[in-house]
Prior knowledge:
The chain has a single domain, classed as P-loop containing nucleotide triphosphate hydrolases (Rossmann fold, 3-Layer(aba) Sandwich). It has twelve helices and seven strands. It has helices at residues 16-29, 44-49, 68-81, 115-120, 126-129, 131-137, 156-164, 176-198, 202-211, 231-244, 260-267, 277-294, and strands spanning 3-7, 34-38, 95-97, 100-103, 145-149, 167-172, 216-222. It has a seven-stranded mixed sheet with strand order 3-4-2-5-1-6-7, with helices on both faces. The mean pLDDT is 96. Residues 3-195 form the AAA domain. This is AAA domain-containing protein. InterPro entries: AAA_dom, DNA_Partitioning_ATPase, P-loop_NTPase.
Amino acid sequence: MCKIIFIGNYKGGVGKTTTTLNLAKYFADFDERVLTIDLDPQSSLSEIQVLRHSTLESLDRIPDCETLNYIFDLSIKRIKRYPSLNLKFTDTVVKKANNYSFIPTSLFYRKGIGLDVLAIDMEDRIEYLSILKDYIDTLKNDFDYILIDCPPSSNLITQSAFLMSDYYLIPTVLDSISTNGVIHYIKTVKETYKKYCGNSNDDSILFKHYFGKEPELIGIFYNLIRKQVNYDSADKEFREALLRENIETTIFETEVNNFIDIARSTEVGEVSKVRKDFEDLAKNVLNRVKKMQVAP
Ligand SMILES: Nc1ncnc2c1ncn2[C@@H]1O[C@H](COP(=O)(O)OP(=O)(O)O)[C@@H](O)[C@H]1O
Ligand SMILES: [Mg+2]
């Protein structure tokens, strides 16, 4: 059964995109069939993944109709103007990078209509919130894991990703502003689910039936660690804050250090050959997800 995991945090620069890329590559190395989805209108994940595609060299060479933007654009038009139209998409949008697949998002779609612009046209209704899930459902049989790179902002597209996902993972840097942000993020995910699926009104029943269970937090991990004097106190404070908020979760013992080779490899869509931090993290994340799957 395919599991959908989003990688999120409202703070930028904590390593969401880097993590998505690394987990995709390592999960695939562990023989899992992986698909990534780039929900960031900035398209950085797509931009580095096309570098690993056999023929596409840059994002602007992807035909408009082979991007996630196209799927949203046409689906929004259908819902607004032609609700009875039976709109089907093929898998031409799914591309290969290294040993896994990805769905690109483009900054160049129709000369600059990014996912953020498309999201403005969406309405807070189930037809719009189901666009992404409806499309992904057609591909799910081909994959074991779908990893979603979430942008550091909230709109109906990211909210629909929360609703359709089974799990999520939060990278953070270790300082008090960032760790407070993590707690806020977890609450937002919970509140989003509750808003649509958790009330006992008519629509909630429908939403819950459609989207299933609330996404479960796989855990939090520290990224961009460098020798810092306040490490122990910052870590302790964070754990205490989580307890105060009654958030029970794993903080992964594997942390990812700040290594220039990780940044350099990411820039070209690769994982670091000399630094194994992300490989260890990927192993632990995968093990944990598998355990969560068998737990009641
Ligand atoms: N462990 C790491 N070591 C070195 N550089 C990193 C590491 N993790 C992320 N980076 C770099 O930090 C920057 C932000 O990472 P990115 O994955 O784009 O964050 P986000 O998607 O959360 O905005 C990028 O330049 C990336 O290469
Ligand atoms: Mg990013």
